[in-house]
Design goal:
The complex is a heterodimer.
Chain A: H1 2-31, H2 51-62, H3 67-80, H4 85-108, H5 122-146, H6 154-182
Helix pairs in contact in A: 1-2, 1-3, 2-4, 2-6, 3-4, 4-5, 5-6
Chain B: H1 2-27, H2 31-34, H3 37-49, H4 54-67, H5 75-98, H6 112-134, H7 142-168, H8 176-179
Classes of the chains: A mainly alpha, B mainly alpha.
């Protein structure tokens, strides 16, 4: 029980950190007028969506023990962004289960096992980020437009979500890999 | 001469599977959108004969968009969509090879699970790129997302079904080469 609590708590704060950095970058971009003011636009997305990498990292490290923390932070952020009721649960679920599906595809199909996170190569992280971005952007695209929330051109949606997910998740995964290496952090003992 | 033969083989394999999908689609409602066999044929051709059969696959895809598309594409769109359909699996093959995720260029010691991975990811990539191109100059219509979803699942199921059936009758997979001699 305490293992589940600890893993969930860790997952919650790791993903919270990713969201915090992500939102700080958006505020900074606004402050120097790199992007239009008005906060994050869910229609367009961001070119550096760090939390996707955080969700994937938490699933790889903590597995099912940290899933409660992931669900909680996902619900928390959906409330924070005031998502419409018709996409609220879908987006919350995609945030959590998209990375799980992506990592499971790699594991089940014996492409990469991601058992020892520190020893994985940069190329495997690129590939993981690529699949994460594909699943996240496609599933959010389907949910967002099939439920009829569209106010923007669909092309703008895809062309920002896909590269944003790819770059963001890759940067976050490489960053935590680097942190694990320099602080000699081991894998979480299940 | 061998490359030419392989290209003809690849063209026939993909084109016949397109015809089969269209024929079955006219009999069974939504068949073409749910199980698009040509995607599997394209993947199989690339696995069997390598990247040298790109012209044959490209030609078959051009024919598909010219004669069997549900919409009326102009010539630029036909060639662009055919190029995306042909090159997206090649891009993924290259990515897989570079990142040691499986060498799809060589059939020796190939892991069938890696082929499934290749089909799943290339179906997603192909759907994403094609629809990014098609949606670039139109404002979004609700049906486009449904079409895209159908295309994704059609390619996914068609690809898996085609390659599974093909490999079932010839194991290891390189024996298919001998079975699929069209010319």
């Amino acid at each position: 029980m305490s293992k589940y609590f600890l893993a969930s708590l860790n997952s919650f704060f790791i993903i919270f950190f990713a969201y915090f950095v992500f939102l700080s970058i958006i505020s900074w971009q606004e402050s120097i007028e790199l992007v239009a003011t008005g906060g994050l636009n869910i229609d367009i997305g961001s070119y550096l969506y760090l939390p996707l990498g955080a969700y994937a990292f938490c699933w790889i490290i903590y597995g099912k023990q940290g899933i409660l923390g992931q669900i909680l932070i996902s619900i928390f952020m959906s409330i924070y962004w005031e998502l419409d009721s018709n996409i609220f649960f879908q987006f919350t679920l995609i945030n959590v289960f998209g990375p799980i599906i992506a990592v499971s595809i790699f594991r089940v199909l014996e492409v990469y096992q991601f058992k020892n996170f520190k020893s994985e190569t940069l190329l495997s992280f690129i590939f993981l980020s690529f699949v994460l971005a594909l699943i996240n952007s496609l599933s959010k695209f389907f949910v967002y437009f099939i439920t009829g929330n569209s106010t923007q051109n669909a092309f703008n949606f895809l062309v920002t979500y896909f590269p944003g997910d790819l770059i963001g998740s890759f940067i976050f995964i490489v960053f935590v890999n680097f942190v694990m290496k320099i602080f000699h952090l081991g894998n979480y003992k299940n | 001469m061998n490359i030419f033969k392989n290209n003809v083989n690849a063209f026939l394999l993909v084109f016949v599977s397109i015809l089969l999908s269209v024929f079955l689609g006219s009999i069974i409602e939504n068949f073409k959108s749910l199980i698009f066999l040509a995607f599997g044929a394209k993947i199989l051709a690339l696995l069997l004969w390598g990247v040298s059969v790109i012209p044959g696959i490209f030609l078959a895809k051009v024919m598909q968009y010219l004669f069997f598309a549900n919409f009326k594409p102009d010539l630029e769109m036909v060639f662009s969509l055919a190029a995306i359909a042909t090159f997206s699996p090649v891009l993924l093959m290259t990515m897989m090879k570079i990142s040691n995720a499986g060498n799809m260029f060589k059939l020796e010691n190939i892991n069938f699970r890696h082929i499934i991975f290749f089909i799943v990811i290339s179906a997603m990539l192909s759907a994403l790129l094609k629809h990014m191109y098609m949606l670039s100059d139109i404002l979004f219509a609700h049906t486009a997302a449904v079409v895209m979803l159908e295309a994704l699942f059609g390619q996914l199921f068609g690809g898996l079904l085609f390659v599974y059936v093909a490999s079932k009758y010839a194991q290891p997979i390189d024996q298919i080469i001998r079975k699929l001699k069209f010319v």
